[in-house]
Every structure is written in structure tokens, then in C-alpha cells.
Design brief:
The chain has about 210 residues and is of the alpha/beta class. It contains 4 helices and 8 strands. About 40% of the residues are buried.
């Protein structure tokens, strides 16, 4: 159990469209829900994020004539994987999984609402420079260490964790509370990049790192 007031958990995108039956279902995506519910209250600061795309978002394959989901295109901000339409604002697919205990949450952050740019990370849009405001919120709460959980390990979780490490936070990813898309080896690449960045990857609860 976490006992330090400077620690937060950030739960990434546990939404219907990323769970079985959803438009961009992650294999076993709903399996993270009981793990997150069990550990959530261990953290004094609790943040939930949601993908929150307008219809016709430029990251959707349907917005690019002749393109299919999971193809990659070049956008002004760099390479962009094209996704099936998902987490459209106000849709059932954009809602949190019904069994996820969001009531203990302190802050809820919606990302990806700019129609022209995707936003995997909870900290920055995919141009790596437009902030979401999460950094300022966590610093105002005195947070120094962040644990990440949610969907998907190799995209939104990894991008968020890597940005948090670059911003100077101590970072842990609870792999038992995450699931991956694993698109053409993306999981192995993400895990290696996180390890190289000094991020702790754990598959179960572990004692806090000694100060």
C-alpha cells in the first residue's frame, strides 16, 4: 500500500471502446478493471483520463480517403497510426467501463478533442509540445511519483509514462493493470523504451522504493 502523500495514480482510458465488444477493443481490456478498483484508494491523488474525439477526427482511418485502420500516415506533427472510429464524444464507447470505480477520482482529463491532432499521452498532444494541463495539476497537488494503469500499454500508457519521466516524476507502470494492442511489435518496443527511461515496470504490488 502507498502511504506517501506525494504519490498519484493515473488511470488511462478504461473506456468501453477499448474493452471487449468496443470499436478498438484491446484483448483482455476489461481485465484491468478489478485490479484498478483494488489499488485505487492506495493513492492519495487519483486521476482518470478519457479519449474524447470529435466525429471525423484526423486519427480515424475514415477521415482519409482510401486508407484502412492500422495504416500509418504522415501528419504535420509526425507519423500517425490510423484507427477505427472510437471514443467519439458523447457516445457509449467513450464512457468509462461500467464496473470501473471512478467515484474516488479527484480529476478527470479528456484528451484527443482537437480534431487535427491525436493525443496518446495524458501530458501532451502528439506534437509533444501542446500540454494538457496534467503536469500543472499534479505539481499543485505536490505529486512527485506517479503510477500508471489502463489502456493500452504500448500507446497511451507508455506515452504518458515516458512524458512523466521526462518531466521529472518518478514513474511506475503496473503491468498487471494494463493491457496492450501490440501492433506489429509495439508492445516490446514500448516496454524497452520505458525500461531505458528508468521507468519501473511491475506486474504486482511492490513495496515503495526507499527514499
Amino acid at each position: 500500500m502507498t502511504n506517501h502523500t506525494n504519490e498519484a495514480i493515473v488511470v488511462i482510458d478504461v473506456q468501453n471502446d477499448f474493452c471487449p465488444g468496443g470499436a478498438l477493443a484491446v484483448d483482455g481490456g476489461d481485465e484491468v478493471v478489478p485490479v484498478i478498483n483494488r489499488i485505487l484508494r492506495n493513492y492519495p491523488v487519483r486521476v482518470f483520463t478519457q479519449d474524447w474525439h470529435p466525429a471525423g477526427h484526423r486519427s480515424f482511418a475514415s477521415a482519409h480517403l482510401g486508407k484502412l485502420p492500422f495504416e500509418t500516415v504522415t501528419m504535420p506533427y509526425g507519423p500517425q497510426v490510423l484507427w477505427p472510429d472510437h471514443c467519439v464524444q458523447g457516445s457509449d464507447g467513450a464512457e468509462f467501463h461500467e464496473d470501473l470505480q471512478t467515484a474516488p477520482g479527484h480529476a478527470f482529463l479528456r484528451k484527443g478533442f482537437n480534431a487535427e491532432i491525436d493525443s496518446y499521452s495524458a501530458f501532451f498532444e502528439n506534437d509533444h509540445k501542446t500540454p494538457t494541463g496534467l503536469d500543472g495539476y499534479l505539481r499543485a497537488r505536490g505529486v512527485e511519483r506517479i503510477t500508471f494503469a489502463g489502456l493500452a500499454t504500448d500507446f497511451c500508457v507508455a506515452w504518458s509514462a515516458l512524458d512523466a519521466a521526462r518531466l521529472g516524476f518518478g514513474v511506475t507502470v503496473r503491468l498487471d493493470a494494463c493491457r496492450a494492442i501490440d501492433l506489429d511489435g509495439s508492445l516490446a518496443r514500448a516496454l524497452a523504451e520505458m525500461e531505458d527511461a528508468g521507468i519501473r515496470l511491475v506486474d504486482k504490488a511492490t513495496p515503495p522504493v526507499p527514499r
